[in-house]
Design a protein that fits this description.
The chain is built from three helices and five strands; from the N terminus they run αβββααββ. It has about 120 residues and is an alpha+beta fold. It has a five-stranded antiparallel beta sheet, with helices on one face. The structure holds 2'-deoxyguanosine-5'-monophosphate. The site of 2'-deoxyguanosine-5'-monophosphate has 14 residues, from strand 2.
Length: about 120
């Protein structure tokens, strides 16, 4: 279960705080990262707050596959289709929001040496 309830992403999903939303389905929302690390830096976020990280999300493989498919669709739509998909997992690995989300990074990195 999510440690933060509601997470910043739940507030975005519920339209309690604004975000630049680039895609939305029944299960997922995709937004531009507020602090982009690459020319294209999107976050694909399951609407469910039940998964704090990708390891927990792997318990729902169909939902995980939907995240990957949306990442690919957005990378084709907003870049040339080639991208990095990053799931920071755990605070020591850089995770700051414990509501699972995939970073979709494409194009030149803005801050060389820093992943996300
Ligand atoms: P991580 O560190 O992997 O948990 O990534 C969290 C990302 O979420 C980080 O790159 C910045 C982004 N972020 C945090 N708060 C907001 C927000 O309010 N709006 C948007 N668009 N992005 C946010």
């Amino acid at each position: 279960m999510s440690a933060e309830t509601p997470s910043i992403f739940s507030k975005i999903i519920d339209r309690e705080i604004p975000a630049d939303i680039v895609a939305e389905t029944d299960d997922l929302i995709a937004i531009r990262d507020i602090n982009p690390q690459a020319e294209l830096h999107l976050l694909v976020i399951p609407k469910s707050a039940d998964f704090r990280d990708v390891v927990e999300l792997a318990e729902e493989p169909e939902l995980l596959a939907k995240v990957v498919k949306m990442a690919g669709d957005l990378a084709r739509q907003y870049a040339d289709g080639e991208f990095r998909l990053v799931f920071n997992t755990g605070a020591a690995a850089g995770q700051s929001v414990f509501h699972v989300h995939a970073h979709v990074l494409a194009g030149p990195t803005l801050d060389e040496g820093k992943l996300v």
